[in-house]
Amino acid sequence: MSVSRIVARIASPKKALTAAALAAATTGLVLTSAPAQAATTSASSAQSIAHKMIPSAAQYNAFSKIVEHESGWNVTATNSSSGAYGLVQALPGSKMSSAGSDWKTNAATQIKWGLDYMNSRYGSPTAAWSFWQSNGWY
């Protein structure tokens, strides 16, 4: 089952937040939003960042296919059996600290690390995608 199907089965985060805010308001509590520098967690935000970082359509499409298969564009995706983490499923996830100390939550940091990895190991995201298609991993 794909990540998107699993996510679709989970109650809407907006509905959950609305319900929590309503419950808090009726009991006199106040909920505040996360700070502006909080993690980029939405798939569309991460994809937008990647589009800006990868100007070539072919390279972006290859990168995007890998990320879709690996994490479903979920910045905090964690493989329960291996511990691989993030958009590009780095193993261990802490490897991404070489791209920035905010590697656990920042899509741009994870994308930068992933691009560097794909370029250094395979030559490009398209070559990494070709390898992924043959092996089911990269």
From TrEMBL:
Q: Which Gene3D superfamilies match?
A: 1.10.530.10
Q: Which domain of life is it from?
A: Bacteria
Residue span of the signal peptide, if any?
A: 1-38
Kindly state which keywords UniProt assigns to this record, in alphabetical order: Signal
Instruction: Please tell me whether the keyword Magnesium is annotated for this protein.
Output: no
Question: Which segments constitute the Transglycosylase SLT domain?
Answer: 60-126
> What name goes with this protein?
Transglycosylase SLT domain-containing protein
What organism does the UniProt record list as the source?
Streptomyces prunicolor
Name the lineage: Bacteria, Bacillati, Actinomycetota, Actinomycetes, Kitasatosporales
